[in-house]
Amino acid sequence: MKEKTEKTSVKKKKSAETTVSDSAKSTQTKAKRQVFKGKAHVQCTYNNTVVTITDLNGNVLAWASSGSLGFKGAKKSTPYAATQVAKSITEKVRKFGLKELETYVKGIGSGREAAVRALANNGFELTLIKDVTPLPHNGCRPRRPRRI
Asked: What is the Cα–Cα distance from 61 to 90, expressed in whole angstroms?
């Protein structure tokens, strides 16, 4: 009985060593990847501004939001917060060597233009700016009028 338990403990130690080495390998390969063109998805709502930068295939390189930077309440949806989000994400993406961005803007918040301007001022060449805000084609049926 003791021999079986010793064998299983040896197997567990080996599996723990392989998982550590596998995770170390994956972080090294990510840092070496160079991406020169990418997409910036800017989502502006009444409550927050989220900027996500991806490569051309849609794999996320970095993201930031005004809430994650520490803005609270009504300050999250301001144009100033949007510029700070763009500045933060620029620092995160520097290691990939990104130069050109296609920008897709979604939403109706006040930080839309500020986020796009901040991306342009932080050294990115914007090759495309497209509005992808979803519009209903007379979507859902409205609720009944109130009888007072």
From this structure: 11
